[in-house]
């Protein structure tokens, strides 16, 4: 396939999707920090220990989640950068090709 | 004779952060491998009825057998104490049979079991997004309408056992012992036949394929099409195993590493078994040390979605307030499953928002999801959390679930034939 | 869409069915139904974007019925040709 064909067919989903992944990872961490410990505390306050989770578990979850969030964000940014560079290279190749064709 | 101990023991003393991380890694592997291998329990079962292919169903049996053998081996060699294998063994009762049938029916109608629902949703299948939403609704319906009655029957032993744990542990049921010998014999007696049956079903399917290839006339080129390596621009299945050269296998391995070719069923099976073993060891003594999907995606995620609106289902809603801890390692496992499947789908170029051509499929997907939610909660687990897990637990609920789910899938295929 | 040079000569669609956006068991059930309705010596073209269908279930269906098949990938869509005898 020619560079111009590939550039025209480049799906911008490839650029948006890694950013969506980064947003999801950060959003999930923020949600977890904001709501899960307080929901757990509500169970203690209402004396429902059947589904209460000890604080060490919540802390363990948040530590592991923080690590997973960092890894996912880094991976998402790398994937975004890879596809962005690919798109820019395709466009540059198309521009060079047009320039060569227009020269006498 | 003293009863078996009910005190789980930790194998790895690294704390909950490590346990959650291990479940997260396992979830990522599950999602990635399931996406690359197109691993679907429903497809494996429905193929038996639609295309008369036992290849993927055979892979499922190999997965179950290998899981039983490997967890059994870890217990027999003393790496994992026996109590960590049977401690969380399920109750057994009418609900496993009924729930599995409803689940099999609903999952086939909706287009995916719990594992494939998540990886397909992460790959852009809109129908599976609706299936997931339906599952959350179905879980809530189960919680308020079915769980009070079901828990009553469980508490009173009405068509139900009352303890679970070692009473549902085949070594104890067969030999009244949880010693290494009884566990080893049971694991071998369960695992080896399953693997053998699985391989035999695969061999039978593949030899039938080769027979069709051999029977084709030279003019049609069917035999040439099957035997020759795929030329550029042509996609298709790998050549029958007996015709593959070592060079072709290396080419296929490279193509799989570069995400150009999907993983085969048996390779996926091996990797998924590894993911199970990871949590079996890491979670021993800390938590339910097996793979669980549906407690989180169908149960907790609805609970979490409502939290920002000031609603805490765990305070006063049946099932949410007595059977579902507010958090456990399956939460991170399922989140990383979605991340793994999404990453694999995106990097392989497979990600695409896919809307079914027939819009009625969206309604079928949502309704099927409701049945999935009701079915898995009634059965106390899904194809992963109960059926597959229970083989690793050396229990018998997995066997009940398997046959019951097959029945539900069979009925659904008949219904689907009328709807297409 | 321009035809792929590696496509065999017989792979020209007489009947076409579109199952894009669908996953198992819809592609194989729909294909099976169309094949039964079609007259013999015709070619069915199945449009799908589900890799499992192309790699596993549709080939199994075609083999089970003894029909020749060919698959190719275009832009975001697979074309699966089955020749009914």
Q: Can you describe this structure in just a few lines?
A:
The complex is a heterotrimer of chains A (104), B (420) and C (85). Chain A contains 3 helices and no strands. With 104 residues, chain A is mostly helical.
What is the approximate shape of chain C? Answer: globular
Low-confidence stretches of chain C: none
- The total count of helices of chain C amounts to 2
Strand content of chain A: under 5%
Summarize the amount of helix of chain A as a percent range.
over 70%
Helix and strand run of chain A: HHH
Distance between the amino and carboxyl termini of chain A: 26 Å
Question: What report would you give on this structure?
Answer:
The complex is a heterotrimer of chains A (104), B (420) and C (85). With 104 residues, chain A is mainly α. Chain A has helices at residues 3-9, 13-45, 55-102. Chain A has one domain. In chain A, helix 1 (3-9) packs antiparallel against helix 3 and helix 2 (13-45) packs antiparallel against helix 3. The mean pLDDT of chain A is 90. Chain B has helices at 15-37, 41-50, 55-76, 83-86, 94-110, 114-123, 126-145, 147-155, 170-175, 180-215, 222-227, 246-257, 265-282, 294-306, 313-316, 329-347, 360-378, 383-392, 397-419. Chain B contains 19 helices and no strands. Chain B has one domain (15-209, 256-419). Chain C is α+β, with helices and mostly antiparallel strands. Chain C has a four-stranded mixed β-sheet with strand order 1-2-4-3, with helices on one face. The longest helix of chain C is centred in the C-terminal third of the chain and has 15 residues, at 51-65. The model of chain C has no long low-confidence stretch (mean pLDDT 87). The interface between A and B is large, with 35 and 36 residues.
